[in-house]
């Protein structure tokens, strides 16, 4: 009965590509043409931060930055390169109430984070919004992704332990150094008992310089987290 109702519903309101709006066969997906434009990030990439390497580079290596600097992350992974095609899906979801995009984006997150989940994860935590931004935007897109990813991975999500305590300028309006200063000490963990000894995955939509994710990770590590990984839908890639 439910299958027949679904078929009738699909005839009245057929599934459409989340990017171009073309009628397609399945819900929450892209048409073949739009899908062909998505640049998925696959190996070889830096084993730690996930920066893509040229195809001829060997697997399991670290990039120069990870060799030189100590970071608060165990692993960083992103599903796709941030370009005009992925950008539309993400910005429509983030700012224009296209919350139907969340299932596809969460599916990409899950695939990109397979080695993180294989290494062991206790909690999934979204990058939080300051309450003033939350009022303006109405929802936290990272929290929505976190909810679906939790169902897919069977790892519990925590929406309360990491808080943003200082209102900041949107990172898109800041350059590299300003981004670091803008979010410095902007996050805290009010209930450290929920975090101590836990392996945590931070969820966000885009990895640009990593400044926001690093500040979140530092707060979680100070609260006693055993490890912190990051998982984002897209990543700004200089060469890819």
Overall description:
The chain has helices spanning 2-12, 32-37, 64-68, 84-95, 102-112, 114-119, 131-137, 141-153, 176-183, 211-222, and strands at residues 76-81, 123-126, 163-164, 187-188, 199-207, 227-235. The protein is of the alpha/beta class and 240 residues long. It has two domains: 1-36, no CATH class; 38-235, Rossmann fold. The strands form two sheets. It has a four-stranded parallel β-sheet. Strands 3-4 form a two-stranded antiparallel sheet. Helix 5 (102-112) crosses helix 8. The model has no long low-confidence stretch (mean pLDDT 90).
**CATH secondary-structure class of the largest domain:** Alpha Beta
- Total domain count: 2
Strand content: 5-15%
Structure annotation, total helices: 10
Name a few traits of the molecule.
38% helix, 6 strands, single chain, alpha/beta, Rossmann fold, four-stranded parallel beta sheet, 240 residues
Task: Write the SSE topology.
Layout: H1 2-12, H2 32-37, H3 64-68, E1 76-81, H4 84-95, H5 102-112, H6 114-119, E2 123-126, H7 131-137, H8 141-153, E3 163-164, H9 176-183, E4 187-188, E5 199-207, H10 211-222, E6 227-235
Parallel strand pairs: 1-6, 2-5, 5-6
Antiparallel strand pairs: 3-4
Helix pairs in contact: 5-8
Give me a quick take on this structure.
This protein has 240 residues and is of the alpha/beta class. 38% of the residues lie in helices and 13% in strands.
């Amino acid at each position: 009965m439910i299958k027949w109702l679904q078929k009738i519903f699909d005839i009245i309101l057929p599934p459409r590509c989340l990017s171009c709006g073309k009628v397609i066969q399945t819900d929450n997906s892209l048409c073949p043409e739009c899908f062909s434009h998505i640049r998925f990030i696959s190996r070889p990439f830096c084993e730690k931060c996930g920066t893509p390497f040229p195809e001829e580079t060997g697997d399991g290596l670290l990039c120069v930055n990870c060799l030189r600097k100590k970071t608060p992350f165990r692993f960083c992974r992103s599903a796709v390169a941030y370009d005009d095609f992925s950008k539309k899906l993400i910005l429509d979801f983030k700012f224009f109430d296209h919350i139907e995009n969340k299932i596809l984006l969460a599916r990409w997150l899950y695939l990109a984070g397979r080695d993180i989940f294989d290494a062991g994860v206790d909690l999934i935590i979204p990058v939080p919004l300051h309450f003033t931004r939350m009022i303006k935007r109405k929802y936290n897109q990272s929290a929505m992704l976190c909810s679906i990813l939790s169902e897919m991975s069977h790892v519990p999500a925590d929406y309360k332990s990491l808080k943003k305590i200082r209102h900041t300028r949107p990172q898109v309006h800041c350059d590299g150094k300003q981004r670091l200063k803008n979010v410095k000490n902007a996050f805290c963990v009010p209930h450290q008992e929920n975090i101590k000894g836990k392996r945590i995955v931070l969820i966000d939509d885009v990895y640009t310089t990593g400044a926001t994710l690093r500040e979140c990770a530092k707060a979680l590590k100070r609260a006693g987290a055993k490890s912190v990984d990051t998982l984002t839908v897209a990543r700004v890639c200089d060469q890819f």
